[in-house]
Specification:
The structure holds 2 protein chains of 2 kinds. By secondary structure, chain A is an alpha+beta fold. Chain A has 23 helices and 21 strands. Chain A is 46% helix and 21% strand. A 5-stranded mixed sheet of chain A has the order 6-8-9-11-10. Chain A has a 5-stranded mixed sheet with strand order 19-12-13-21-20. Chain B is built from 5 helices and 5 strands, in the order E-H-E-H-E-H-E-H-E-H. Chain B has helices at 12-24, 35-44, 61-70, 88-97, 109-120, and strands spanning 4-8, 28-32, 49-53, 79-83, 101-104. In chain B, strands 2-1-3-4-5 form a 5-stranded parallel sheet, with helices on both faces. In chain B, helix 1 (12-24) links the parallel strand 1 (4-8) and strand 2. The chains are: A alpha+beta, B alpha/beta.
Chain lengths: 695, 121
């Protein structure tokens, strides 16, 4: 790839640098040797030239300064002194270190570059160049306001002979902004007189661009001498008065020199449409009128667009109105599902077609309604930066916070409710995770600890990661604590994931001392509950001594989820699809084989299951073959036994109301296509309560 | 079909860089080591564009441009010259020999691609 060239350049440059070093040392002994001076100059020149060619801009800039000095030496304007040689030698070392650091390293010391350049300039007694300032000015000019230009491009007839294609130039103009092109073919001779290798056409272009005049001139840079080119500004929107001086057709033609002011006045006196009259009077050709008309329309269109843009940039709307909208969309999705179901039940092609159309539109409406509520998570991130700064100061730690994915969007409500748990997690990382500077240095780590916060979209959820390079989790301490609290038996062998998950148990803390920040054992269980309520999951990974990573997965929105619809007896239930791993069958024989334990053998792994029929006390006959929906929550697989798995379903979540607030294992309800109600299962809570009963 | 561009340059590293950049951009590349070599190769096949250095042994860039323009197949193709100086004399000489445009060395791959796009469309 491009690295091959960079590598080739680097090798060449290292060679040149070592040659430069020996030349400089020789030069110190023979300061008048013009051959040596030439060698030094050429080495610098090549490094500069090739450097900028292969993307080593810093090296090119720096070397340019040194080259300038040696150009003066070469021209006898400056003498070779010991100071000059010393400075040039350190400049050579600096270039080398820039090269060494060019592969993603920390970069060379800019202060050192500045010092060397200042030293060299002092020697040559030249002022700091104004080039930098001029460049900055040119840059600011590049982001000009949108201005409309009239460009008349009349190539010389022999333009083709130097390989230029006018159409390419026009295409390039189009890239600059809204553009209208009219070809003027008046000069085209009769066929028998025409030389096909010559160009007889001229083009009138009306272009609105924010790139400035130079960008337009650049388009024609190669043909400047082969054409007649005129570029005039025609309309400038006056912000102060809101007025735009857009011209009448006659004025446009007068400005273009197609018609004189007297002719215009004479025609105008007759008070008919100017364009028709001008043609009728033989003053201009139809081409010219057409071109001027195009310009007029273009300017009007640009103006219209501008007004629209000014009015429609953004509006502020109270959040409640959005809630109402999302609610309505939810209702609509429900009705649409009914429509689709009804349509599917009848053999009416027309109805099916309508139902499909409604389905598509509802889907789009739902997406855009939910999109309105999306906010970038970045604002929360910047709050955390402050938190890290203040807390680490308080605790005497040196911690830097880095973030990633601040532009990731999440539902407004979700972002608000995510704030507290994230604060908790970051506090934990700072307090328990990152060690004191002395401890870190002793362990061979950099003094500065890092807490990295990142957010990234993954499917229909957002993954938020908090990573620190601190002490990591002490598995043995967690185990000891868990045994002490009676959470696990002393002989239990737990996989790492489950062991770490114990941290989220209520009242669990391994911190030896309680600080103002954390350690009282409230925290992680609260965090877990908050994340559960957002229907998210939280997971820990850690390497002792190297750091901890906490991954929080949150669904994009709270209002509508993808879920799996199941049936038990006559009742319908939903499981959030994001938690479902797979579905397997459960036969009577399987149940008999398990000897009364609720364990299923799935590809040689035992998966515990919860028979929902028993749990919810649903009467009726159990079918011969039941289904187990296997879910994965926080790394633990648990199955739910149901009568039948129906399929995926777009679920609009309705809260159950206050009366059912404490209903265990149910997080909400939804209305199905046929109007019946399905309950949404709260999978983590169900698992928890079954575990609690078993213990 | 990919357009074919010839690069004529006596410096292998520049040729490698130009050729690599153009191939990345989806063009087919024919390399020539000097003006003479280039003219011989041009006589044998049709190319859509020519990028040539000015200082080359055997036959220099100006000579190559003049020679190429005399070939019917190259009469209207874009020809870009690589010059080290941004002074107008060389550019003017090249232009009157029939060059379409120029690139001042040193240049970056993006600049090369921009010019190719500009003249080749």
């Amino acid at each position: 790839m491009i690295d091959v060239h960079r590598q080739a350049f680097k090798e060449e440059a290292y060679e040149l640098l070592s040659e430069l070093e020996s030349s400089l040392l020789e030069l110190e002994e023979r300061p008048d040797d013009s051959d040596l001076i030439g060698r030094v100059f050429r080495a610098m020149h090549t490094i500069k030239g090739s450097g900028s060619m292969f993307g080593f801009d810093d090296i090119a800039h720096f070397t340019h300064e040194v080259e300038t000095i040696f150009d003066m030496v070469r021209n006898g304007k400056l003498e070779v002194t010991k100071t000059l040689v010393n400075l040039t030698l350190s400049a050579r070392d600096q270039i080398k270190s820039m090269l060494d650091n060019s592969d993603g390293g920390g970069g060379a010391d800019l202060a050192e570059s500045g010092r060397i350049i200042a030293g060299l300039r002092a020697l040559a007694s030249i002022e700091a160049p104004v080039a930098a300032r001029v460049e900055a000015k040119a840059k600011s000019a590049a982001t000009e306001a949108r201005i409309t230009y009239r460009v008349r491009f009349q190539p010389n007839p022999d333009i083709f002979s130097c390989g230029s294609n006018p159409l390419n130039l026009l295409a390039e103009l189009r890239d600059l902004g809204p553009c209208n092109v009219v070809a003027q073919t008046a000069a085209l001779p009769a066929l028998e007189d025409m030389d096909p290798e010559l160009c007889y056409i001229l083009w009138d272009v009306v272009l609105t661009t924010d790139q400035g005049l130079n960008a337009i001139r650049d388009v024609f840079i190669f043909v400047e001498d082969d054409c007649v080119l005129s570029i005039d500004m025609i309309a400038e929107y006056d912000e102060a008065s809101g007025q735009e001086n857009h011209q009448k057709l006659g004025e446009i033609m007068r400005d273009r020199g197609d018609i004189s002011a007297e002719e215009m006045a004479a025609v105008l006196a007759k008070q008919r449409r100017f364009g028709e009259l001008a043609v009728a009077n033989g003053l201009v050709t139809e081409d010219k009128v057409e071109s001027a008309l195009v310009e007029q329309r273009h300017v009007q269109a640009v103006r219209q667009e501008k007004q629209n843009a000014d009015a429609g940039n953004s509006i502020r709307v109270p959040a409640e109105r959005l809630d109402v909208l999302v609610n309505l969309v939810g209702e609509l999705v429900t009705v649409q599902a009914r429509l689709s179901q009804t349509a599917a039940g009848r053999a009416d092609a027309e109805l099916v077609a309508i139902a499909e159309e409604v389905e598509r539109l509802t889907g789009e409406l739902r997406d855009s309604a939910l999109n309105i509520r999306m906010l970038p998570i970045g604002s929360t991130f910047s709050k955390f930066k402050r938190l890290v700064r203040d807390l680490s100061g308080e605790l005497g730690k040196e911690i830097e916070m880095t973030t990633d994915g601040a532009e990731t969007e999440l539902d407004k409500t979700v972002i608000e409710r995510l704030n507290d748990p994230l604060v908790h997690l970051i506090r934990n990382s700072i307090d328990h995770g990152v060690e004191l500077p002395e401890t870190r240095v002793a362990a061979g780590k950099p003094r500065f600890g890092t807490v990295h916060l990142s957010a990234v979209h993954s499917g229909d959820s957002v993954l938020i990661t908090i990573k620190d390079d601190g002490a990591g989790l002490d598995k043995e301490a967690i185990r000891a604590k868990a045994v002490e609290r009676g959470l696990i038996s002393a002989s239990a062998e737990l996989p790492e994931k489950e062991l770490f998950a114990l941290i989220f148990a209520p009242g669990f803390s391994t911190a030896k001392k309680v600080s103002s920040v954390s350690g009282r054992g409230v925290g992680m269980d609260v965090v877990k509950r908050a994340i559960d309520q957002l229907r998210g999951t939280i997971e820990l990974a850690s390497v002792y001594g190297e750091g901890t990573r906490i991954m929080v997965r949150i669904p994009l929105t709270l209002a509508i989820i993808e879920s799996l619809l199941v049936r038990i007896g006559g009742d319908f239930y939903m499981l959030p699809l994001s938690m479902v791993d797979e579905c397997v069958e459960l036969t009577r024989e399987d149940v008999a084989r398990a000897h009364g334990r609720n364990l299923a053998n799935v590809r040689d792994h035992l998966v515990p299951y919860i028979p929902l029929r028993e749990r919810f006390l649903i009467p009726g006959v159990v079918p011969d073959i039941e289904q187990i929906v296997i879910t994965q929550v926080n790394g633990v697989r648990v199955g739910f036994v149901v009568d039948q798995v129906i399929g995926e379903h777009q679920t609009v979540i309705k809260s159950l109301g206050r009366a059912y607030k404490n209903a265990e294992g149910i997080s909400g309800a939804t209305i199905l296509g046929d109007g019946s109600v399905a309950l949404i299962l709260d999978v983590p809570q169900l698992v928890q309560s079954v575990e609690a009963e078993a213990a | 079909m990919a357009k074919i561009i010839m690069t004529a340059d006596d410096s292998a590293s520049v040729r490698q860089m130009v050729s690599f950049t153009l191939k990345q951009g989806g063009y087919e590349v024919v390399e020539a080591v000097d003006g003479k070599d280039a003219l011989q190769k041009l006589a044998g096949r049709k190319v859509d564009m020519l990028i040539t250095d000015l200082n080359m042994p055997n036959l220099d860039g100006i000579g190559l441009i003049k020679g190429a323009r005399a070939l019917p197949s190259c009469k209207f193709i874009p020809i870009i010259m690589l010059t080290t100086e941004s002074t107008d004399t060389k550019k003017q000489e090249g232009k009157s020999a029939g060059a379409t445009g120029w690139i001042v060395k040193p240049f970056k791959p993006e600049q090369l691609m921009a010019v190719v796009k500009k003249v080749l469309g």
